[in-house]
Amino acid sequence: MEELFGHISLGLFILQTILFIALIFLLKKFAWKPILDAVNEREQGIKDALKSAENAKKEMQNLKSDNEKLLADARAERDAMLKEAREIKEKMINDAKAEATAAGEKMIEQAKAAIESEKNAAMADLKMQVSSLSLEIAEKVLRDELSNKDSQTKLVEKMVDDAKLN
What we know:
The chain is an all-alpha fold.
């Protein structure tokens, strides 16, 4: 051991120890507090950052759930609008069909009325022509029969007998 301590003097050793203790004392008095404050401040900054990150994460989850809710609401509204549009379309088609059916039935009724009117007019015209022809035929027959005096007398007697029977 003497070989190890042979080069070191006791005074130098004590002086170095005193300087070391003084250095520790000075560091404790002037540097230790700022270093600890810096470490504590850094620790607090990290805690605040973690807390902020946690809050941001929660806020992102809330925003995500809000967005999902908004999307669901938008989809529901879109579906409702599409359903309403389909119902309006079907109503318009049904209304158009009903209107077309009513218009068709009205046209059919008008056509039937026009046909009936034409039929009645044709029947009246036919009756008129038949009666006119009947009168012409009767006139010709009567002329033939009345052209002769004996025929006239027979005809008058026959008509008188027919009148008496009725």
